[in-house]
Specification:
Length: 260
């Protein structure tokens, strides 16, 4: 027997339209601040989300179902929306961007107000309900989680100096809070679990997803970022002098938000 968690969302077409406008504005702001690597990571993450959501969750495991909309186009928007937003935010956290607070507030505010705007002004728009069951593959996700964090823990145990270790609390905070911010905003806005009456089921979905779904990738994302930062600047220009893995980690560990 496995624990069945139902990840369900209900929204109207105005919600999609408003969110697409936000994505364009957000991407423009990142571009204006020369966050080119962040933009690239967000775009690639959107593609990855689509491969997982449509290719694996829908075509392979048949865990996705939808009413009121087209599965492919709805998942394409969802993948590019949350894949792009989540991973650009993660990248901004990892590089400790000096505008991290401003970007974080922008994202969280949007996740909270978009459902309210769509609910108030979108009464005449068609409604889409989409959901997936998760129990059949959460074990695989848990395996990815434990392998990643076990590797990081072992790595840290062989480092005597604190500045040479992976900042576990930092990546845990990113992995859990990014997903929690999204899940909580969707729940409060009536998007997540709208047709589920059980409070415990609603909370279980939010808690399990927050601990697992984005967090499982954080050890890997951390080393991807460190590997990138060894050779390249955020504007995608090559550094004059490449850094060793140790030097890149020490530099990142010593860097504070607002110092850049």
């Amino acid at each position: 027997m496995y624990l069945e968690i139902i990840a369900q969302r209900q929204f109207n077409y105005l919600y999609i339209i408003l969110d697409c406008i936000f994505l364009v504005v957000f991407a423009f702001l990142l571009f204006k601040k020369r966050n080119y690597a962040t933009l690239l990571v967000g775009f690639l993450a959107g593609i990855l989300y689509m491969i997982v959501d449509y290719g694996i969750f829908h075509l392979l495991t048949h865990s996705r179902s939808i009413s009121g909309g087209n599965m492919f186009w709805t998942l394409l928007w969802m993948s590019m929306s949350y894949g792009f937003t989540n991973f650009t935010w993660i990248w901004l956290w990892l590089k400790k961007d000096k505008y991290l607070l401003e970007y974080s507030l922008l994202i969280l505010l949007w996740w909270f107000v978009c459902p309210l705007l769509a609910s108030t002004f979108g009464e005449n728009f068609n409604v889409i309900t989409i959901q997936r069951t998760t129990g059949s593959y959460h074990g695989y996700m848990a395996l990815i989680l434990i392998v990643g964090y076990l590797g990081v823990i072992i790595f840290n145990l062989f480092k005597d100096k604190k500045e040479e270790r992976v900042p576990l609390l930092w990546i845990l905070a990113i992995g859990i809070l990014v997903q929690f911010g999204w899940e909580c905003a969707l729940l409060l806005g009536g998007i997540r679990s709208a047709l589920i009456s059980s409070i415990s089921q609603k909370l279980m979905t939010m808690v399990i997803n927050s601990l697992l779904e984005t967090n499982l990738g954080m050890p890997y994302m951390y080393f991807i970022y460190i590997a990138f930062s060894r050779f390249y600047q955020e504007n995608l220009t090559k550094k004059e002098r490449s850094l060793t893995l140790k030097d890149a980690m020490i530099y990142n560990n010593n860097l504070k938000v607002k110092e850049q």
